[in-house]
């Protein structure tokens, strides 16, 4: 397959909406495009191919996509050779409706067939008509695809895709399918490959990351995987997202506390603090179980930073229900939270529930929740003033850095830190130790000279303009019969 027209390689731009899974999928899309001969556009506005990798979790995702497609229509009219592709969860949901609503779109592909994109683009060019291909289940596990990583120092690693839960507000299981788990040896092989390229931090990804092992019958598999990942030489930070309270076991807390490079940061979705609403959501835990997990985490790791997701205005939510959510927020003392106003998603049970709440009621509750969270996160951040933090220098975390003369990065607990560099010139991927001098609700400042500075291989890679580009880790999907022997892996994960 060639992507050249009159001798010039065609350019591409990928535009990503949604969660970390989508961000990682976009790295795969970029890898596929470059393997097919495309090059990333220096100017995204003049790209020959624009790929939208979409989200469908909230209603405004639809409006945002179709608005952006509308903005591209005049460009497409002026340049018919330009191609527009739409993939991801919204493509899986809307399918052929996308080209009906926006007939200037050339390709629509789903969550299960990312690998088909280059061929679909070529077919659409050859046939001069839109190509829509949506599969109902995975043919190839996404991690077998080539991946162009966006970062020299941090990498996403999928350990599973899909979800077996039936939350009434969530459309993801119908778009991503049932959970499919990778074998631990193959996960560790991908992590080792990233570390060999200079990566210092990995985040293990799954729609329900701590149910990992369901396919091969080991409910303790995730804790074992954490320990094994933590044993990889040269890997300095391990994170994971997102767990589900119903599957969160004590062995995972022990693995976090006892494995030095597993970060003491935990994203634990709450959604609601009301037992009645949790039941209506089909979230199979209740307030006391949730708070019990938080207490156990804090007992094992007093310095743990715990973040969460909260939905306001679920159908039937009363003022008393909402007060229960506020009470959990007060008791849990989150370091930050992703807050959402409930949004109907067609095809979910919650969309047809009675007692859909008026917008004004939801908005008023949402504002009260945000105000309480800001009060708590600010108070928790102020406790860190005068404390030493280790910062992994990052790219693009601080919008005001150029004006203030600071750089930014993440502490080990995941908090955002803006820091003064003194006489140093740290590079993204390098490690700086500094002291917190100021706290805001959503970040920390460190305005004194750094205590120490360590140049890293990740910083070297950034300086050289080199990001990891993996060809994909061959693993396939579970098959019927006795599985083939797994390759030996370091770390001794006995999953």
Which helices and strands occur, and which strands form pairs?
Layout lengths: L3 E2 L2 E2 L1 E6 L3 H16 L3 E2 L8 E6 L4 H20 L4 E6 H6 L2 H5 L5 E3 L7 H11 L3 E3 L13 E2 L5 E5 L1 E2 L10 H5 L3 E2 L2 H13 L4 E5 L15 H10 L6 E5 L8 H9 L6 E3 L7 H7 L5 H14 L4 E8 L6 H14 L3 E6 L17 H24 L5 E6 L7 H4 L1 E6 L4 E5 L10 E5 L2 E2 L4 E3 L5 E3 L2 H7 L5 E2 L25
Parallel strand pairs: 3-4, 3-5, 5-6, 6-7, 7-8, 10-13, 13-14, 15-16, 16-17, 20-23
Antiparallel strand pairs: 1-2, 9-25, 11-12, 18-19, 18-21, 19-20, 21-24, 22-23
Short note summarizing the structure:
With 495 residues, the chain is an alpha/beta fold.
Please explain how this structure is put together.
- Mean pLDDT is 87; it is low at 473-495.
- 33% of the residues lie in helices and 20% in strands.
- The protein has a seven-stranded mixed sheet.
- The chain is globular.
- The chain is of the alpha/beta class and 495 residues long.
Low-confidence stretches: 473-495
Helix content percent band: 25-40%
Query: For the terminal residues, how far apart are their CA atoms?
Result: 40 Å
Shape: globular
Number of extended strands:
25
Give the number of helices.
15
Please outline the major beta sheet. Answer: 7 strands, mixed
The largest beta-sheet arranges its strands as 22-23-20-19-18-21-24
Share of β-strand residues: 15-25%
**What's the Cα radius of gyration?**
23 Å
On the 0 to 100 scale, the average pLDDT is 87
Which labels suit this protein?
about 500 residues, 7-stranded mixed β-sheet, globular, alpha/beta, 6-stranded parallel β-sheet
